[in-house]
Design goal:
By secondary structure, the chain is an alpha/beta fold. Helix content is 51%, strand content 16%. The strands form 2 sheets. Strands 5-9-8-6-7 form a 5-stranded parallel sheet, with helices on both faces. Strands 2-3-1-4 form a 4-stranded antiparallel sheet, covered by helices on one side.
């Protein structure tokens, strides 16, 4: 179309959608400011890092807090030893299929229920002697093991019936089961034989035992995952208790159960004090956390500023805003400089590839069809890119062409408006405001001036 006739579409604006693709407008408003967002994120990251570095240096603890931190350091040393014990435990590092399980059981008839405790105590006392474990280590080929680990290789089970279900005239009977882990069949058999000989001699000396008899003695390859899991759970339980104690020292009000060292909330100042006393203390990287938190805050602040500005002062960002909302044809879209790679990717992603003329020659050909009318080229003189484009238009068209500023602020421009003139607007994408553009179009409507079209600039 040559121009909009008087009284046509631009008599009013379509305000149902100030930007034809609202989602695309918001997305583009963010993406086109990616450099600003990157800068705000970087500033936030640096600010968080500075807080993390400077805060511990100016924070002072009171006496109670210092006592708690000293206790924490002591408990941390205990925790480290426990972790090393668990890590080096051969029963947790070897494959389950590499073990054998030797066991022997005895049925023991006691004169009274109270003798059950005596049997268990006697067995425990025997297994608490270092000479006992040294002998077991040699027989079962555990000589390279730390003797403290061998306690995990022996299990004593005393099984008793429910006595109130047995007639009073019956002697009580219990089953004692001895089990040991071995790393070869022969050593396992020798170890269980040695243990049974010692226990039999000890059991015969316990007052109250009427008689006992061997039930079974075995040494076979089998799945022992339950036993190994029990050993692991024992070490875990000790670690958890230590961690809970550590947590209560520096977080007295906390009731949470700790499962990992990093579960304990340690402030930057606390971490710095602890590390000065115990250089081996390693906790989650607080510097990294503060830097990331600062970066997130910086990004959010950048997004809020960009979105607020885009909402309060919307700009023309899509050619559809001109053609659909204003009802004015777009004559051409001129790119004044090559976009940075990311800018180009983001622009094409949100705008697509509209089929618009990209040459001023097309604009010249379009306007030369009616040389009788004066052509008024209207654009914001404060925008350097628009001013440069107006000069190019003036050189290109020659003749009856007038380049003016915005009608709403340029009284000389208003005086040029007449029935014999036609207007070409120059709008700078992402710079020319929507409200500003509407004001210029309304003034043309008021003076009954034809609007030939809009020349868009992309930079």
């Amino acid at each position: 179309m040559r121009a909009l006739e008087k009284g046509n579409n631009y008599d009013g604006f379509n305000h149902s959608n100030s930007q034809v693709a609202t989602t695309s407008y918001i997305l583009w408003s963010i993406l086109r400011k990616w450099k600003s967002l990157f800068l705000s994120t970087l500033i936030g990251c640096l600010f968080g890092f500075l807080i993390a570095v400077l805060y511990p240096k100016v924070f002072l603890f009171n006496d109670n807090q210092i006592d708690s931190l000293n206790s924490f350091v002591q408990l941390h040393s205990v925790y480290q030893r426990q972790v090393r014990l668990k890590k080096d435990n051969p029963f947790l590092t070897m494959q389950e299929q590499d073990f054998y399980l030797g066991s022997i059981s005895y049925n023991i008839v006691l004169e009274k229920e109270a003798d059950v405790g005596a049997v268990y105590v006697q067995l425990q006392e025997l297994s608490s002697k270092d000479i006992f474990w040294t002998e077991i280590a040699n027989i079962a080929e555990y000589s390279d093991f730390n003797l403290s680990y061998l306690e995990d290789a022996l299990k004593i089970s005393v099984i008793k019936p429910v006595f109130n279900e047995i007639p009073l005239n019956y002697n009580s009977s219990i089953t004692v089961k001895l089990s040991i882990l071995g790393i070869d069949r022969q050593g396992c058999e020798k170890a269980i034989t040695y243990i049974s000989d010692l226990y039999e001699a000890d059991l015969l000396q316990i007052k109250g035992i009427s008689t006992f008899s061997e039930v079974s003695g075995t040494a076979k390859k089998l799945e022992i995952s339950t036993w190994i899991d029990g050993i692991r759970e024992k070490y875990n339980a000790i670690e958890y208790r230590i961690l809970d104690s550590m947590n209560r020292e520096i977080n007295p009000s906390s009731t949470a159960s700790m499962r990992e060292l990093n579960d304990i909330r340690v402030t930057l100042a606390q971490a710095q004090y602890i590390k000065n006393l115990d250089p081996t203390f390693e906790h989650s990287n607080e510097l990294f956390k503060f830097a990331v938190s600062g970066a997130i805050v910086g990004l959010i602040i950048g997004l809020v500023i960009i979105l607020s500005n885009s909402t309060i002062n919307p700009t023309i960002s899509f050619w559809e805003t001109v053609s659909y909302n204003f009802g004015i044809p777009v004559l051409a879209c001129i790119r004044t400089k090559k976009l940075f790679f990311l800018d180009s990717v983001f622009f094409n992603f949100t705008h697509g590839r509209p089929k618009l003329a990209n040459s001023l020659e097309y604009v010249k050909a379009f306007l030369s069809k009616d040389e009788a009318n004066d052509v008024i080229v209207c654009g914001d003189t404060k925008d350097a890119t628009v001013s440069e484009m107006k000069k190019q238009m003036e050189t290109l068209l020659k003749g009856n062409v007038h380049c003016v500023g915005l009608f709403s602020i340029d009284s000389n421009a208003i005086s040029l408006l007449s029935d014999q003139s036609e207007v070409v607007f120059i709008f700078h994408l992402d710079h020319t405001g929507v409200v500003e553009a509407e004001q210029q179009i309304l003034l043309c409507k008021k003076f009954g001036v034809e609007i030939s079209g809009v020349l868009l600039i992309q930079s």
